[in-house]
């Protein structure tokens, strides 16, 4: 695609940039999880766990853990952001995570259904 690189150059894909491409993810900064119900993404459009033969080995465990933690916490507590200020993702090692200023407070403990 018109780019030349020296032999042995390391190239890394920016998963963050891919997931914020305006043509694939309009208004990508908006929290809208239902977008995954409205469209299915090709393996080269959505790659949180990488791809090819080095794809994450723990993806199934990670997805299960996330669902269990979200369901356990959200069915027990009503949470709210501590401060409503714009926040940018922060680099943590090789990954991106919420910044240190990201805090949530428990507003209410929800009654158990069963
Ligand atoms: C949300 C959680 C996780 C995310 C977003 C994630 C993401 C990734 C990504 C992007 C890669 C690189 C793939 C590549 O080089 O193309 C990777 C590799 C890897 N991940 Fe994960 N991962 C997660 C959780 C886990 C867990 C829970 C485990 C183990 C229990 C795990 C084990 C591995 C291993 C062993 C590799 C290296 C695979 C290889 O190089 O052959 N990951 N992960």
Helix and strand run:
HHHEEEE
Helix content: 10-25%
N- and C-termini, Cα separation? 58 Å
Broad structural category: alpha+beta
Major beta-sheet overview = 2 strands, antiparallel
Average pLDDT rating: 92
- Write down the oligomeric state: single chain
Shape, principal axes of CA atoms: elongated
Strand percentage lies at: 5-15%
| Individual helix count | 3
Q: Any low-confidence stretches, pLDDT <50, length ≥5? A: none
Number of strands: 4
What hetero molecules are in the model? protoporphyrin IX containing FE
Radius of gyration: 18 Å
Write the SSE topology.
Elements: H1 15-18, H2 35-38, H3 59-76, E1 77-81, E2 90-92, E3 95-97, E4 104-109
Bound molecules: protoporphyrin IX containing FE (HEM).
Protoporphyrin IX containing FE binds at residues 48-51, 54-58, 61-62.
Give a description of the structure:
This protein has 114 residues and is α+β, with helices and mostly antiparallel strands. It has a domain at 1-56. The protein contains three helices and four strands; from the N terminus they run H-H-H-E-E-E-E. A two-stranded antiparallel ribbon has the order 1-4. Strand 2 (90-92) and strand 3 form a beta hairpin. It is elongated, with a radius of gyration of 18 Å. The structure holds protoporphyrin IX containing FE (HEM). Residues 48-51, 54-58, 61-62 line the site of protoporphyrin IX containing FE.
